[in-house]
Structure formats: C-alpha cells, structure tokens
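Sequence in, structure out.
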Amino acid sequence: MPTTTTPVTGASSTGLDSTSADEIFATGLRNQWYAVCPSEFVPAGGMRRVTRLGRDWVLFRRGNGTLHMLADRCPHRGARLSQGKHLGDRIACWYHGVQVDGGGTVTSVPGLPGCTLEGRTLVQAPPVTEIGGAILAYFGDSRNPEPCELTLPEPLTDPDVSSFLCYAEWNANWRWGMENLLDPMHGSFLHRDSHSMFAGETTAKFRIRETGRGFFFEKTDQRGVNFDWVELCRTGVDWVDLEIPYPPTAGPGGPFGIVGMVTPIDADRSAVFFWRYRKVQDWQRDVWRFLYRTTLEPRHWEVLEQDRLVLEGLPADADQAENLYQHDLGVVRVRRMYRTEAEKQAAAAVTP
C-alpha cells in the first residue's frame, strides 16, 4: 500500500523550556518534530502513555481516527490523565473527573460546574501527524510554540516505494543511536556476518559532502558494495537515509534503503524507528513484501540487535574518553552540531 500522511492536529506546544544545555543535549533538542511511536499503538478509541524528551505524554484517538497528544498531567491536581477515562474527544481525569479535550482545554469540572478552570487551555497539546505507520509530534519550548515547517522523508511519501516500519526501545542515550547511523564503517565489522554487509573492504576513506538540508558522510573509494554512505537530513525532523546493496536472492527492486529516526525517551533511553524500503511496483512490490515477511525481516532484526547490544554497553561517559580517527568525522560533525544547538536553546531560555 502507498504510504500516506494525515493532517496535523493539536494546539501549540509549550513547556519544554530548559536553562541547561546539558539537559537538552541529554534529552533532545527542542523546537523540532520527532517520531513518537507506531500508529498501531493508539487504535481508534484507545489511549497510550509514553515518555518522550524526558516528559510524560498521553496519546488518544477518537473513533473517527483523529489523533491527539497531551501532557500526561491533569491541570487540577497533577494526576495522570492516562489513568483517566477516554470520552471520545476528551479525557476525564480519574481523580476528580476534570475533562480535558484534545487541544488541552478544560471542558468540564463536574465537582464545580462553571468554575474558572472551564474554558481555559491548561494542558500542553503538541501538534501531531502520521507518516508511514508512525506518529510524529512537534516538541516546542515557550519561545517557539508554533510548529516549524515539516518536510517528510521522500521514501515515505513516494507511492512507488514500499516500506516496513521496525520499532524498538533501547536503554541507550538517543545520541548514541544517531552517531551510530553516522558511522558507516561499523557495518564492515559489527554486521559483517549479515546477509547484506559481508562484502567490501574493511578499510576506507571518507568525506563530508554538504547538502541543502544536511550532509552526506560517504566513502570515497567504494560505492554500491556495503554500508557506503549515509545522509543526515534536517527537514523539521531529523532523519537519516542510507542504502545497502542487496544480493539477487533478495528479489527485485534494486538496493535496500533505510530511513532512520531516533527519539529521546529520557537521558538513558531512546526509541528507534527504521523504515526498510525498496522502490518497487506492480508484481515486484508483492514479491518484495512476501520475501521481507518470510525471509528478510528476522535477519534485519538480528542486525538491529547487534546495534542494541553495543550501544547499551557503552558507558555513560563513553564520549569523554575517546580516541577518534578519520572514520569518525560524521560522528564528530553531528555531535558538535547538536551540542551547539543545545547551548543556543539554553541561552535563549534565559535571555530576557
């Protein structure tokens, strides 16, 4: 089926202020979009509690499919809205019955009808949209409550591309996941025994090539053999695109692509999203999807498990005692970029 998007819903997002660059660096940059969870986690009429960027949220979906996201905190006494009752277009807090709609506005206070809480927007309600089977939300601070422009990854909007979403949660800081994706050379070692990354040299030279939306980190002496390049794209949401050559036994469709996103849960955990895709049409699409479900998917999960084990094993101060070399230019570039932005956002929060 072609990948589709849904309209953005939700009110302005506020309340993710921080005066600490270290906190922002650890729990995620503000004022941009992040993938939150697979769409299937929130069925029609359902609710789901999640933690993202170090804060607790509740997602709920109306019977007609409209999705909402709220801070998981009742404006009355601070009880979790996720413990409350789903009333279709609003949630009633379990503690005292206070009702909050999808835009964060208090619609009813059953214990004292007409009180001053009613009609006030008191709960954060980040704008949300959906793409490729995942929910995305905008996380803004009080200086940037309106969502920034969002351009979705082309492989997830192209009707000729067929993709599968793989979702996992890792006990590792979100930056380790992003840096891992900006490190193509690890594929030649960590994943060497996989079905698609066994070929190619274990030595290489790399370069950074700037683009209008980010940069490529790529091998200069090898192409179409292994994990040879990755592009970091900053289009309102940070995502990476990369390509792995496939052997003929993997069926039609040419190279196998991955769109990856990593979202902070908190300082120690992250949610990872990997869309495995190929550009295929007609009968080739059916063959690709059949092969993926029956043969390729378990192999891909084995690769992800290798990444998880290494990243979860990194000490919290791993980046404080490194000895980097030329292959790590992509890691250094993305790390410095995120640190600089974290410092800017922290400084802006304390500027009168």
